[in-house]
Amino acid sequence: MREMTMAAAIREAMQQEMERDPSVILLGEDVGLHGGAFHLSHGFVEKFGSERVIDTPISEAGCTGVGIGAALTGLRPIVEFQYMDFMFCAMDQIANQAAKIRLMCGGRTSVPLVIRGPQGATGRGAQHSQSLDAYFMHTPGLKVAAPSTPYDAKGLLISAIRDPDPVVFLEHKLLYGSASPGGGSALSDESMQPLGTDVPEEPYAIPLGSADVKREGSDVTIVATMLMVHKALAAAALLAEQGISAEVVDPRSLVPLDTAALTASVKKTRRAVVVSEDCRTCGVTAEIAAVIAREAFDYLDAPVERVAAADSPIPFAPACERDVIPQVESITAAVTRAMDM
Amino acid sequence: MNEIPRIDLRGLGREELLELYRRMERARQFEEKLYYLFLTGIMPGTMHQATGQEAVAVGVCTALEEGDTITSTHRGHAHCIAKGVPVRDMMCEMFAKRGGSCRGMGGSMHLTDFDRGMLGAFGIVGAGIPIATGAALSAKVRKSGQVSIAFFGDGAINEGVFHESLNMAGLWKLPVVYVCENNHYALSMTNERSSAVPEAYRRSAGYGIPSKRVDGNDVVAVLSETRGAVDRARRGDGPFLLECLTYRIRGHARFEPGDYRDDAEVERWKKKDPIQRLRLSVVDAGLASEPDLDAIRHQEAAEIDEAVEYAKQDRDVQSADYRELIFKEPLS
């Protein structure tokens, strides 16, 4: 088995695509000489040159627009953000331009652009912690990938780079150090274990819109993304001790959303708990819960439970941050509520 | 005192001058026809006319090679015509027909034609500026020799992306020419009321980008200055900012008469109409007669009438057509 952190898997996907296709370029703050804020592109500038690995000024909107212009004229840019929170600075270019250009021109062009950046609460306070999944999911014209394992990250990023349409590629800071076995985990909760996923050396693509069952079970379906997959698995292990068999399903991308796989799992287990690190109101859990309620209504033995971040800016104080963000015990509690119905 | 100011033809030949005239007439006649069609209630949507600003679009685009690219704005009809987008495709788009340049999905504010290097008209003020900058970066990476043009109005120079883009272009010496079409008003706001430094051309100094202010109602001057800037960019000497002083004779948009302006001011600018100025200058120089020029005007008007008739007969967009156009492979 080939062990690798998610950071290394993302790096390998970018490197292999840049080797395969000279039209792939990487743009962002500190991606060149410094090798990226999280060191995902370490050594790239030496390997591919400063024309393809471009250190940009701190100009998120301008840089995203530059990526769009390059995408319209024959390149496949990857625009890296140091923190997902900074994507708000570029929201006009992402939501008004990149997402709409194909439709506005009657489908006569593509915007093959990848926008990547890390999200997740990690003790950095309100402006370096957010999970903006729902903003992008709510913007027609964007695809949204959300990997939870190194294997998925590599395969999804290769798909994203090859995609003819703009893809927002969500990464979780706490998963960068997570690995297939032996790779050294930086997960935030002692009870969580890295998933034993092999990461093949050769390039492979995981299609966007294909969910993955991370753990099979028969009593309840836990739908979770990114870091929450790992918390859901930890919760499932605890629940198993109580005789509850939880199935954990990871959509892996939010747009397209593999509603068939989610629905099939819920039809089997008859209970659903949806978990995401973005905040509750109009969030990812709201959309997925609505899909399940509509598609599997006759099969449900309990209302769909949602476990999401509190509707609050994320506080610095560790105790408060922990309260805002969904934890293993909030998932087990939601499952218990669903089972008690 | 009512003399219409002539322009220096700078040794341009008859054919070149008549082509400039033809393009400007095409843009003018196209928009005059649209205005009429809107008033008669048979055309949907809205539009922003560039009446009086045609010399900027035509002067700039005439300086370009076929592979060069432009980005445009909400006031983009003249840019498209100047870049060679067929009026028939544009008229179909205005009528939301399937034969439209954007299959009826874009409308007046988003006319686009990739085959002719028209990368898009962006309805958010300033939004096309970084996109044009990215096209220039792409040209440099691909070593294609293309030059990129960003058209924008005076209102855009206070948007953040203007400054972010000029900084990157100056830093990386990108082959891009920023064309500020200064028509003096951002809806109702004058340059002086909106900008601490109202002269757009002075703004680029902070980014190491040379610049010039030119009479934007003198098509020959615009062409000549653009040629210099484009040649420079193509040689690898980096970006340029060209501020073209002009005036929008009409209001901001279809339902906006522009009544915040002094009538005398509007009348003063009408006397500087770029099409009239070129006409009289060409006639004065003995290069063409009034009837020659009238013939061109009538030809263009007839082409546009033909485009209207064609568009009326073209297939209507169906209500579900958009569904296949959101992504390349529609989501199930």
Question: Which features does this protein show?
Answer:
heterodimer, A: about 350 residues, alpha/beta, Rossmann fold, seven-stranded mixed beta sheet, five-stranded mixed beta sheet, 13 helices, 12 strands, about 15% strand, globular, B: about 325 residues, six-stranded parallel beta sheet, two-stranded antiparallel sheet, about 40% helix
Question: In a nutshell, what does this entry contain?
Answer:
Chain A is α/β, with parallel strands linked by helices and 341 residues long.
Helix/sheet category of chain B: alpha/beta
Estimate nothing, just give the exact number of structural domains of chain A. Answer: 2
Mean pLDDT of chain A: 94
Q: CATH topology of chain B, which one?
A: Rossmann fold
Q: Spell the H/E element sequence of chain A.
A: HEHEHEHHEHEHEHEEHEEHEHEHH
Strand content of chain A: 15-25%
What structural class should be given to the helix and strand makeup of chain A? alpha/beta
User: What is the distance, rounded to the nearest whole angstrom, between the alpha carbons of the first and last residues of chain B?
Assistant: 68 Å
- Enumerate the spans of chain B where pLDDT stays under 50 for 5 or more consecutive residues: none
> What's the CATH superfamily of chain B, by name?
Thiamin diphosphate (ThDP)-binding fold, Pyr/PP domains
- What Rg of chain A is obtained from the alpha carbons, in whole angstroms? 19 Å
Please describe the biggest sheet of chain A, giving its number of strands, its sense, and whether it closes into a barrel.
Answer: 7 strands, mixed
CATH class of the largest domain in chain A: Alpha Beta
Q: Enter the CATH topology name of the largest domain in chain A.
A: Rossmann fold
Please report the total strand number of chain A as a whole number.
12
Q: H/E series of chain B, N to C?
A: HHEHHEHEHEEEHEHEHHH
CATH-assigned homologous superfamily of the largest domain in chain A? Thiamin diphosphate (ThDP)-binding fold, Pyr/PP domains
Helix content of chain B: 40-55%
> What form of chain B results from the Cα inertia axes?
globular
Please count the helical segments of chain A. 13
C-alpha Rg of chain B (nearest Å): 19 Å
